[in-house]
UniProtKB/TrEMBL annotation:
Gene3D superfamilies linked to this entry: 1.20.5.4130, Helical domain of apoptotic protease-activating factors, P-loop containing nucleotide triphosphate hydrolases, Ribonuclease Inhibitor, Winged helix-like DNA-binding domain superfamily/Winged helix DNA-binding domain
Location of the Disease resistance protein winged helix domain: 432-502
Pfam families: LRR_14 (PF23598), NB-ARC (PF00931), Rx_N (PF18052), WHD_DRP (PF23559)
Full protein name: AAA+ ATPase domain-containing protein
One GO term of the biological process aspect: response to other organism
Domain NB-ARC: from-to ranges: 171-347
SUPFAM superfamilies: L domain-like, P-loop containing nucleoside triphosphate hydrolases
PANTHER family assigned to the protein according to its UniProt record, in alphabetical order: NB-ARC DOMAIN DISEASE RESISTANCE PROTEIN (PTHR36766:SF61), PLANT BROAD-SPECTRUM MILDEW RESISTANCE PROTEIN RPW8 (PTHR36766)
Keyword ATP-binding appears in the UniProt entry: yes
Keyword Transmembrane helix: no
Amino acid sequence: MAESLLFSFAESVLGKLATVVVQEASLALGVHSELQQMTESMALIRGVLSDAEQKTPQSSALSQWLRQVKRVFCDAEDIVDDFECEALRKHVVKTYGSCSRKVSRFFSKSNPAVYRLRMAHHIQDINTRLTKLASQRTLFALQVIDRDTRVVHVRKMTHSHVNPSNVTGREHDRNEIIKLLVQDGDCQSLSVISIVGMGGLGKTTLAKLVFNDTNIDECFQLKMWVCVSNDFELRNVLIKILNSAPNPTRENFNDFETEQLQIRLRETLEGQKFLLVLDDVWNEDPEKWDELKEIIDLNVEGSKVLVTTRSRTVTATMRNKSSNLYLLGCLSEEDSLSLFVKYAFDDGEEKKHPQLLEIGKEIVEKCGGLPLAVKTVGSSLFSRFDKKEWESIRDNEIWNLQQNERGILPALKLSYDQLPSYLKPCFASFSLFPEDTSIHCSHISTLWEALGFLPPPKESESMMEVANHLVHELWSRSFLSDYLDYGSDSSFTLHDLVHDLATYIAKGEFERIDLRNKKNSENAQHLAFMENNLLAQAFPHKGLRSVCLPEGMNNEAFLITLVSRCKYLRVLELCSCELESLPYFIGKLKHLRYHNLQCSEKLRRLPDSVCELQNLQTLNLSGCVELQELPKGIRNLISLRNLVITTKQVDFPDKDIAVLTSLENLYICYCHNLESLFNGIQLSTLKKLSLFECESLKSVPFHAITNLKSLVICQCPKLELSMSLGSQIPDSKLKFVYLGGLPQLVTLPQWIQGSANSLQFLLIEGCINLKEFPDWLVTLVYLKLLSICSCPNLLSLPDNMHQLTNLQKIDMTGCPELWKKFKPRVGQDWYKISHIKHVLNDDSENEQELSE
């Protein structure tokens, strides 16, 4: 199915061929006409790819032709990227001179004459293959569709909390399950209630409705939610349960042995009437369940386990005499149509299109009462009013496919086919993540950028913002679940059937190597290894574009093989590796754009050759607590946009990080020795600065970072937050500010007032000496969220809070004295915030809508 990603890839390569850098390089090397021929041949092939992708399942010969097209397009992309690498190298040499002998030696093979001959030979070979493939396109009677006409009409983003008003046809089911949970059993043995039904019925959504119901809050002293999926290994399940329970000491349970986990969980549950939700269970081994049950069954009367599963065998494994089975049925036709209308039309819009509504009824009938199918197909038709488009969905042959227990839902596949081509590789990349993973937009955006999936940004738009738009588009199509917006970042999950679809679509190109799939195919370009013991069976071929190695990787021989063989790698993930150093020749990966070494706690040094990676866009060294210092010459990383640092350095030289002219995001964490943050700063492109647990840090030149949009400062107790402003407060572009764990904070620093025309999110947490907010707080008229958590000495808010008309939510959790004054309708200062729609406080776990 990876052939469906080819049109987007062709568009990307043709776009690169048209860039000024490539055109100038081809003229300088005397290969301009050859490159022009390459472009023309690729354009001819690109024109028929959309039609070819639709006909692929019907023709093995066409599939073979498309695989050959993909290989030659990949080779063409490597040529284009070679031109870009050479241009970047020349820029570094021109800016900093012969920056190091090592760099000079490394690029010595770029002798102009040798380089020209080598590139000319490669281009000639590609042109020969392209000419042959272009002539063969006529054999398959393919139609020319030269551009992708599919567009996405996006809806307004909402929060991910399950709102009962957004769930259709499940009120009776919710009430019945609540009855089963709150009723007392006849014995003290642990009771298990299982919600059973096929994929896409909404079992998880129903469980969330139940979990968040006030009747459940009143009945149980402790609630825990664990997404299990295929992983029912005892240790991993125990960690998930403990992570979902209250953890006031913020312990990292990943460091615990199994015996320690058992003891801690029993201590947590002791004497507590609890509800434990085990979502999406596939385990059919009764011994594994018995192991867990023995730990959590503490004979506390009324404690319950709520399970969601597709398999009755699973429920039989977990049953005892006080267990109940709840079979979840499909939605009625009436409820299905109501749900479809909600996703396919704006409010009341269906009344203007009675013909479309009639076609919609027929489409809904084909969805078989599955809410996921109804929502996804409805979303794909949102704001599309062409009758023929609706009819093509209704009459598509894919409805004739049958979904098996782990198969692909026809409605999802149909909705995927309607995606614009630029979204398809982004969707396919989700297959590299384990099921039920929470995916952060900051992470996925850097991966998409490194792999060339993002379209060019508009003027003044960052690549992160481009990626967020694509995430929003996929959410609008109902492919994403549990979307959470944190202000400075956001996250989402995938329904397991949606993840199955991504895996199906990506097969042969994106592959996860795990116990079920132990060997990668020779055509796969993107690999994610789940287990270290699977590396011995892997064969990293030269065409690989991205590799994610498993946590705890200590196989240096494999890494050496990988680096030496896969010279076109764009992405290399080495999180939590056990190595003390990396091989020096990692600097030969000149195409590398994303390098993640997060939490590699034994890593002591990086080779200076890392600074030869002029294409590198993201370098993540977070949690590398033994790293002595950054490599010398880091200023040569002129493409670096995202830098995350943990080192033992006391300071950073002014001429290194401070002159990275492409840097947009800088995150400095766990740098316990760091005292100052460069004075000669020139980071005009920096949009996001995060400082976390830098206990010795004293000064940051805030006044020199004029284009920041996001600022996070957490647990930096010595940092001087005020600065000499003179008579005028400098304007800033900050939209998000988080200040946490800062005992030196008594009032807000005045430089925040400079963001009065931009600041939307202001979060203050754990600042125990914060006593007042300045009167100028009310000048932050664009503020949408004000969160003040665990600031016990804060006693008041300014007068005129009513001037903050855009303020939608205020959080006063952990501020008891403040809450007394602002308690809804009874507090003496309630009138100051009575216009705010949502208030969060110690008395409620969820937002309260207070306005009438």
